[in-house]
Amino acid sequence: GMEKPTSHPEPCAEDRVLRAFLAGDPGACHSVKRWALEIVHFRWFGIPFDEREDVLQEVVEDVWRAVTKPGFTIRRGLKPFVRHIANARCIDRMRRRRNEVELTDQIADPGDDPFEMLARNDAAARLRAAVDRLDERCRDVIQLHFVEEIPYAEIAARESRAEVTMRVRMFHCLAALRKIMRRWELVA
User: Of 11, 22, 140, 177, which one's alpha carbon is 20 to 30 angstroms from that of 72?
Assistant: First the structure.
């Protein structure tokens, strides 16, 4: 029989936002900033409040530069694209900040690795760190389904696999994730 193609509910809306963004519409620019803010504000990047507007502006400029290039196409939709750029800008900001402190042998050793402390004290950071310890296939399927909100059927189609295969993979990946999280709870 004919299989009905599964589609993400938003591509049309995102296409409208992209066209409006290209036309310089302030509402579309606001949408792009709002999507970026979800990353800049809620992720564990720790971007200081007074730097967030600068980061958002960098994201909007980067998105603008990308979408106005001749022949530019978005594979996964505008919102995941904006989030991807926001992630990259936040990581750049973290890297720059890391280099601001000159290391000398006078600085006291804080004891615990700061990322270990963060992993123990912050549930979101703990989850992120646990996901990072999974194998690449698990990280990819979790990223696509939970972060980029892509349905199992579409993920399966990309890999030329059955949808049930993706669901079984996710089941095993989430079981592995729970095992890591439980181990850390016992340690904490």
Answer: 140
List phi, psi (to 5°) of 4. Answer: -75, 130
Token pair in block for residue 20: 């409006």
Which residues of the chain register pLDDT less than 70? 1-11, 42-45, 97-125, 186-188
Write out the two tokens for 161: 């696999």
Whether 152 and 166 have beta carbons less than 8 Å apart is answered as yes
DSSP for 33-98, please give it: HHHHHHHHHHSTT---HHHHHHHHHHHHHHHHHHHTSTT---SS-HHHHHHHHHHHHHHHHHHHHH
CB 107 within 8 A of CB 63: no
Q: Of the candidates 44, 47, 75, 71, which has an alpha carbon nearest to the alpha carbon of residue 59?
A: 47
Q: Which residues contact 173 (CB under 8 A, 6 or more apart)?
A: 134, 137, 138, 141, 142
Distance CA 108, CA 110 (A): 6
Cα Rg, the chain, nearest whole Å: 20
pLDDT of residue 101: 54
What separation in angstroms does the CA of 88 have from each of 1, 53, 122, 131? 43, 15, 22, 18
Structure confidence by residue, pLDDT tens digits, 59-81: 999 999 998 888 888 777 888 89
